[in-house]
């Protein structure tokens, strides 16, 4: 009996010792679940953007740029070919860049890179596309062989120029409103800091 009681006593002391050492140990097991990082967790299709003016304009720009590029690619022979090559480069570049921006905005990828001024980026793209599409369409209209593909490319070129022009106007207005909204809090913060500093100087004249 004594041996059994001593064994039970040793077991109790061992369990108490392990509980104390476990409580004092800095390496405690955690019961919180470990969640794997999901890098693409915030990506979703922004239907509201696609239904907005900017989303609709982006879709129309991509479609018209692609149609213009397809029309100019169907031309097999040209002499001179400067106007054709210029329009081909502009339509392909506008299709790729605008398509990427449409993908970025519609999937909310721009929120992953907040340090980029996306409003200004969109403004630069639309303004540059407006200018170069107008110029390339004008050159192709003056230098062409009056084939169906060239005439169609010129028509779609001027159409997409108008769409880009509308987008540029809206982008400029959005950019100005964004800068105004950002500038107002900075100005009020600056005035508040100056007021606080002036009050501290008046309360402590020895700092003057």
Automatic annotation (TrEMBL):
Residue span of region Disordered: 1-30
Q: Name one Pfam family in it.
A: MARVEL
Where is it found, in Gene Ontology cellular component terms?
Answer: membrane
Q: Where are the transmembrane segments?
A: 53-72, 84-107, 127-144, 151-172
What does the UniProt entry say about where the protein is found?
A: Membrane
Question: What keywords tag this UniProt record?
Answer: Membrane, Transmembrane, Transmembrane helix
Biased composition (Acidic residues) is annotated at 1-11
Output compositional bias ranges, type Polar residues: 14-30
**How does the record classify its membrane topology?**
Multi-pass membrane protein
Q: Which domain of life is it from?
A: Eukaryota
- Name this protein carries in UniProt: CKLF-like MARVEL transmembrane domain containing 4
Q: Can you name the source organism? A: Seriola lalandi dorsalis
């Amino acid at each position: 009996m004594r041996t059994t009681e001593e064994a039970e006593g040793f077991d109790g002391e061992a369990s108490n010792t392990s509980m104390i050492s476990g409580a004092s140990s800095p390496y405690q097991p955690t019961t919180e679940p470990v969640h794997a990082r999901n890098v693409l967790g915030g990506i979703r299709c922004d239907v509201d953007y696609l239904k907005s003016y900017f989303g609709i304009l982006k879709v129309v720009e991509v479609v018209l740029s692609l149609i213009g590029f397809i029309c100019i690619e169907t031309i097999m022979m040209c002499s001179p070919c400067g106007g054709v090559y210029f329009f081909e480069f502009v339509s392909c570049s506008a299709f790729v860049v605008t398509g990427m921006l449409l993908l970025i905005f519609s999937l909310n990828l721009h929120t992953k890179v907040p340090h980029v001024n996306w409003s200004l980026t969109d403004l630069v793209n639309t303004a540059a596309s407006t200018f170069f599409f107008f110029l390339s369409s004008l050159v192709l209209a003056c230098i062409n062989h009056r084939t169906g593909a060239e005439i169609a490319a010129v028509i779609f070129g001027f159409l997409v120029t108008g769409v880009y022009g509308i987008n540029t106007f809206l982008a400029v207005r959005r950019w100005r409103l964004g800068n105004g909204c950002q500038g107002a809090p900075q100005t009020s913060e600056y005035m508040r800091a100056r007021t606080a500093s002036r009050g501290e100087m008046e309360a402590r004249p020895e700092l003057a």
